[in-house]
Amino acid sequence: MTSPVLDGLRVLELTEALAGPYCAMLLGDLGADVVKVERPGGGDQSRSWGPPFLGSESAYFLAANRNKRSLTLNYDHTQGRAILERLVATADVLIVSSPSPASLTRRNIDPETLIARHPRLVYCAISGYGFTGPKVGLPGYDIIAQAEAGVWSFTGEPDTEPVRYPIAIADITCGLYSAVGIMAALLAREKSGRGQFLDMALFDCQLTWLANIGSNYLNANQAPTRWGNAHPSIVPYQVFRGGDGRHFVIGVGTEPLWRRFTVVLGSEERLGRDPRFRTNALRVQHRKELIPLIQDVLTQRPAEVWLGRLAEAQIPAAAIRSVGEALNDPQTLARALIVEIEHPAINRARSIANPIRLSSTPALYRMPPPILGEHSEAILRELGYSPDEIAVAKRDGAI
């Protein structure tokens, strides 16, 4: 096995919460040396997001901060700013989260200033709305991006209020896109010798989730309505209930699947030959008549019986699992999707693995999520600071 793909690259992370930390963690998994700069005293705001807590550590923080070293630094302090400048000079990538360009310019850490000083630097700024447009500078959280990007408008059941997706999908999506953009910028640097600026926004990234729904509106002027757990364009493709009351999902996306599905149900005559249900387009048109008929049949046997028969017929179907069931599923374990790393404060930290599977340069899990300021002295020594200078920086509140 060769070295990790990003081995030898330094990523400097000046972010909090989830989008930026998640992006930096992905790069750390691929071998980058990630230095996480945190505020003295409190650090990343997600350190306080709980319960649950494991001792002093929040489970939320543990989710997005493995493979990093923590440096506490007050870069509004004169000495802290000098330390940051020396640190930036060693970095290949800088990731910042800031609501507006003005706050970065005030501190002389805006992209124009730093890329002028360090032409090879890849500078990624993550904000709510980006650095252009009428909403520049407005605060951005995941819940705001989900609402603003139209995603909520078609979630929930038809007669209920909109429902927020309970995972921070805007943050995670922005972290993913940012990691992809950073790696593209690093590849471009190999060709041009120069870094560049990435202007990443939660709103932009969340908007991409409209996908086919957005295409329906842009190309056919068709706005979505709330379908609950059903699909607007495929029938049947939703939640059903077995005779034991357990819920499961079925996805019948092609005509061959539909024909096999009617066989499994024992309804080749009743449903398979009904002209109302002959094609998917017709099934969508007659969904209100079809779904109750299917549910009536499924009520005759327990969910596990149906899931077994559907699996034998190669029809996509699955039980709705709990989080615990999913994390302990044999497939999860066989794919090594749970990472466990020794942690100095809580014995071990467990998290969900990086899903990128590279055959020659796989992700490595070298370091647990850091304790606040755990690596401050070591990083300052690497930058050339003497023990006396480090002691003065501590005394004066710079670190």
Keywords:
single chain; 399 residues; alpha/beta; Rossmann fold; formyl-coa transferase, domain 3; six-stranded parallel β-sheet; three-stranded antiparallel β-sheet; 18 helices; elongated
Beta-strand fraction estimate: 15-25%
What would the CATH topology of the largest domain be? Rossmann fold
CATH homolog superfamily of the largest domain: Crotonobetainyl-coa:carnitine coa-transferase, domain 1
Helix content: 25-40%
User: Separation of termini?
Assistant: 38 Å
Supply the CATH class of the largest domain.
Answer: Alpha Beta
Please specify the SSE layout and strand pairing:
Elements: E1 10-14, H1 19-29, E2 33-38, E3 53-54, E4 57-58, H2 59-62, E5 68-72, H3 78-88, E6 93-97, H4 101-106, H5 111-117, E7 122-127, H6 142-148, H7 169-192, E8 197-201, H8 202-207, H9 211-220, E9 237-241, E10 247-251, H10 255-265, H11 268-272, H12 280-285, H13 287-298, H14 303-312, E11 317-319, H15 323-327, H16 330-334, E12 338-343, E13 347-352, H17 376-382, H18 387-395
Parallel strand pairs: 1-2, 1-6, 2-5, 6-7, 7-8
Antiparallel strand pairs: 3-4, 9-10, 10-11, 12-13
Helix pairs in contact: 1-7
